[in-house]
Amino acid sequence: MIQDKFEDIRPYIDSEIVPVMKRISKHPLLDPILAYLFPDNEPNELRKQVSSIKSVEEFQGKIMLSSIHSIVSKTSTSLTYSGLENISGDKKHLLISNHRDIILDSGIIQAIFYDNNLPTSEMAVGDNLITEQFIEDVARSNKMIKVVRSTNPRELYNSSSLLSEYIRSVITAGKSSVWIAQRNGRTKDGIDVTEQGLLKMFDMSGNGNFVDDFDELSIVPISISYEYEPCDHLKTRELYISRRQKYVKAAGEDIVSILTGIIQE
């Protein structure tokens, strides 16, 4: 058996989904999540539906994309988009967007693709958000690529090199498009600037010709905006403190931001 060097960061594949769905369906966190997203459905029936899923596409179509539609309908009056003519269903792309919300940015993009009969993409998400097995199971079943973050320079270089190689391999092989935010962490001040380190990471897996290496990734820029900034009061607090002292996240703060972004109207 050939070892899969991307096993720890790639999304789950169909052959791995059945036991993952069993774990998700039995987790106690599932009940409050389902109660919010699907209040008219019987929780036990939804659990059975989750446990019967046998593929990534089925999980996305029946659970995740229905969840995004539910969130959008509960928290907004409309959703508009344009530019789909620049997305090819046959060619795979590196989708780079600004970053305003942990879940909704990539989630809404996937729902738009799905509703317009375009293949959904894989999505790069920082491992700081993967705080327990349940979250990792849900995320990697939904085509999440785990971005390993480290303060150790050697580990950071190695993880960046592996991520770069993985992204290039799935795009050039025609397997999947990939979504990634233009910066590490959400924009707090409304200034959307692509981090230079991200561009360097993309080129780590190239052959040395800058133009050809980036052309091969078929980059498509995406701009996302919300009428009301997700987690606005939380971001304002962080900005206020950061201008006076080093801001240190409290335990569980990222989960609070995820939940606030989902339910904030």
Descriptive notes:
It is built from eleven helices and five strands, in the order ααααβαβαβαβααβαα. The radius of gyration is 19 Å and the shape is globular. By secondary structure, it is α/β, with parallel strands linked by helices. β2 (122-126), α6 (133-141) and β3 (144-147) form a beta-alpha-beta unit. It has helices spanning 14-26, 30-37, 43-51, 56-75, 104-115, 133-141, 153-172, 196-203, 210-217, 232-242, 253-263; strands spanning 94-97, 122-126, 144-147, 178-181, 219-222. The mean pLDDT is 89. The chain has two domains: 14-75, no CATH class; 89-222, 3-Layer(aba) Sandwich (Rossmann fold), CATH 3.40.50. Strands 3-2-4-1-5 form a five-stranded parallel sheet.
Short description:
It contains eleven helices and five strands, in the order H-H-H-H-E-H-E-H-E-H-E-H-H-E-H-H. It is an alpha/beta fold and 265 residues long. It has a five-stranded parallel β-sheet.
